[in-house]
Amino acid sequence: MDVTIKEVRTKSDLRKFVHFPNVLYKDNPYYVPQIESMDRDTLTPSKNHAFEICEGKYWLAYDEKGCVVGRVAGIINRSYNEKVGEKICRFGWIDFIDDRSVSEALMKTVENYAKENGLDVVSGPTGFLEFDAAGVLVDGFDQLPTAYGKFNDPYYEYHLLALGYQKEIDFVEYRILVPEVIPDRYARMAKIVSDKYGLHQAPLLKHSDIKNYLDGLFSCLNAAYSNLHGFSELTAGQCADLKKQFLSNVSVDFLSIILDANDKVVAFGVALPSLSKAMQKAKGSLFPFGFIHLLKALKHNDTIDLLLIAIDEQYQSKGVNAMIFDKFAQGITKNGIKYIESTRELEDNTNVQNLWNHLEHHIHKRARVYRKNI
């Protein structure tokens, strides 16, 4: 195929860039369309504080007839590169038809962008920040992704391998079956840990109480995630962006904030009712009716997605996870939740995975980040 690569320069180009996967996977029952307006905001420097530490370009691939057949983003996270002492160009937002000439043209464009900026490693798929979808799906093609994951067909992996990319790290996702009666060992362990270390749950009686702890929450997040793959410290602007999301979507039923004796945030966990099926119904748009599907999903659901768990280094491997899950258990029981979906977590993150040892669970999706020296 004769492929033409064009840089995204206009709002019209950006709309095509964001919309392409919704065309590519239109009839796939396991594809979850992202809300296109939100995706555009993420990719727009004036609307995303990630650009305080990042820069990037986006490209579309066209066939001979002028039809879009692929897309990719090239991203440079200067803060992360400085932290790890490497010259890395990230690639993300990658989708393409099953044609080797398309994938090769897209990745060669990213590699040239990396070289032009004096970089010698290309890694991805990742986003600007740890909270953007990462990885190529390599297992679990017959499973519905969470709203924070990403679906792709199996051929993506074969294309990247053929282009010289090798595994860097895997992310896994668990599906956990909630028993009719949650084992009381979580409550017992939570009390033991609370008494031993002088820790307690933040009193979240109503939604407005959350804002009292947000600064401490993000400070805890920066400290706890500092050594994780792909993570760069959140700036004040990025925290402000995330605060808006917390205040608009999170329920106190699925938020646990752990405080020490001085009321400092030392750990937290947050989950959200699954939005996957609602986003399928919304078909990439909040209006005119998409937001109604999302609101219904937030109020009536049998599944929650575990978004984040962060624990201060001082309290890691000391059972604080039990305190977080004990709080979740109350919300799970209250809301009739039957399943827990873990969003993508590093394959070696045993601190979180050990939570499920006494519940029926299994890995049902795996996504892979690749790396190539150029």
Describe it.
The chain has 2 domains: 4-171, Aminopeptidase; 177-365, Aminopeptidase (3-Layer(aba) Sandwich). The chain contains 12 helices and 14 strands. The chain has helices at 11-24, 36-42, 78-84, 100-116, 155-162, 185-197, 214-224, 236-249, 276-282, 290-299, 320-335, 350-353, and strands spanning 4-7, 54-62, 68-77, 88-96, 121-124, 136-139, 166-177, 200-201, 255-259, 265-273, 303-311, 339-342, 345-346, 360-373. α6 (185-197) crosses α11 and α9 (276-282) packs antiparallel against α10 (290-299). The longest helix has 17 residues, at 100-116. The chain is globular.
Helix-strand blueprint:
Layout: E1 4-7, H1 11-24, H2 36-42, E2 54-62, E3 68-77, H3 78-84, E4 88-96, H4 100-116, E5 121-124, E6 136-139, H5 155-162, E7 166-177, H6 185-197, E8 200-201, H7 214-224, H8 236-249, E9 255-259, E10 265-273, H9 276-282, H10 290-299, E11 303-311, H11 320-335, E12 339-342, E13 345-346, H12 350-353, E14 360-373
Parallel strand pairs: 4-5, 11-12
Antiparallel strand pairs: 1-2, 2-3, 3-4, 5-14, 6-14, 7-12, 7-13, 7-14, 8-9, 9-10, 10-11
